[in-house]
Amino acid sequence: MAKTAAERKAAQRERLAESGARKFELLMDAQELQMLEKNCVLRRPGREPYDMVEYLTLLIRKDNAELVRKLKSMSTECCGKCGDSLPVKECVCDGDSQCWLTKGWHETKLIM
Question: Can you give the pTM of this predicted structure?
Answer without folding.
Answer: 0.77
